Amino acid sequence: MKETKIGLIGAGWMGRAHTVAFHHAGMIFGDDLPVFEIIADVYEEQVKEAAESLGYKRYTTDWRAVVTDPAVTLVDVATPNNMHFEMVKAALENGKHVFCEKPLSLSGEESQILAELAKEKGVVNYCGFSNLMNPANQYVKELVETGELGEIMRIHATYDQDMLLDPKLPLTWRHVNETAGSGALGDLCSHLLSVSQMILGDIKEVIGIDSVVVPERPIAGSDKTGKVENDDIITFLVKYKNGVIGDFSSSRVATGRKNYFYYEIQGTKGTVVYDLERMCEVQVYFKQDADKRKGRDSGFRTVLLNPEHKGYKYFQPAGGIAIGFDDMKVLQAHELMQAMAGGEYAANFAMAAKVDGVASAVLKSLKSRTWEECCNCSWF
């Protein structure tokens, strides 16, 4: 077993989540050896406390010290969106393996640059789309790939939360395009797009519409307000390269919704429905079964996640015992560390560039009010 010597940039919530996942992966799988070398953040008091509580050997307030540190083999970028491109690029140029929280950058074009550089350097390049590791999504992927749902016709998907419904919540970096790139589209809907990319492949073109429900928010520590520059709600239609059509939506002001990551994929032989708020349940309908049980007994049935589903067995010994959202991060950390030893992984920068390319096309369509092509289809 080879050690993974981690240098983390960002001591906030996501950086902590990554570190905990590495810790747990080391304990659960037994063949991962994470070593926490150095952690960076601009706030010295915060990063010092984080280093002590999370088990990092050293800390710094200069992120460049992480990407050039000879002891670090994996640079973990867990900072606000607008910092990703510069930090990841510097890490790649220094020959480091890189783990970057999503989105990879603020545009498909920038993400393509990073993907090409990572390929040139021959290093592990992993983007933090943790929903790809969800056993439920892996199961749906299998149903599509084996043809059990028949020819796929349509996807209907939405990711809704009400975390920003209160207009009194202050303005943050997530509301400003320069730092966030977009609103609900990049923050929430990108997770749906990553799962869509894994299961259904490339989206060819899109057309979107958006809404800013809370146009101004208070500035913390001031009696002034600031403008909300990006989407509270996003909706867009999609056409896939393989002929599938669909619609995606996302809202960060969806009254009553907490983590409503929902999609329905309809095929000629069956349909599958998934809702992350009911994480360990997948609703499936097979036309062949329905034909045998016409009338009152036909309809969807519930499949409970169990050890036969990819990834589940590492957490629970029997079906129907719930696994949690953080377990996806543990599976992600394990796959990442195994990739550094030559293992395969799906969430590379090329995939992330395709997701960011779709988001860029949606943003473009909001201005043009017409269908826009996703340049991702010619990448890689």
UniProtKB/TrEMBL annotation:
Span of domain Gfo/Idh/MocA-like oxidoreductase N-terminal: 5-126
Domain GFO/IDH/MocA-like oxidoreductase: 138-272
Pfam families according to UniProt: GFO_IDH_MocA, GFO_IDH_MocA_C3
Highest taxon of the lineage: Bacteria
Record bears the keyword Oxidoreductase: yes
Record's keyword terms, sorted: Oxidoreductase
SUPFAM superfamilies: Glyceraldehyde-3-phosphate dehydrogenase-like, C-terminal domain, NAD(P)-binding Rossmann-fold domains
Family annotation (InterPro entries): Gfo/Idh/MocA-like_OxRdtase_N, Gfo/Idh/MocA_oxidrdct_glycsds, GFO_IDH_MocA-like_dom, NAD(P)-bd_dom_sf
GO MF annotations in UniProt: nucleotide binding; oxidoreductase activity
Name recorded for this polypeptide: Predicted dehydrogenase
Organism of origin: Faecalicatena contorta
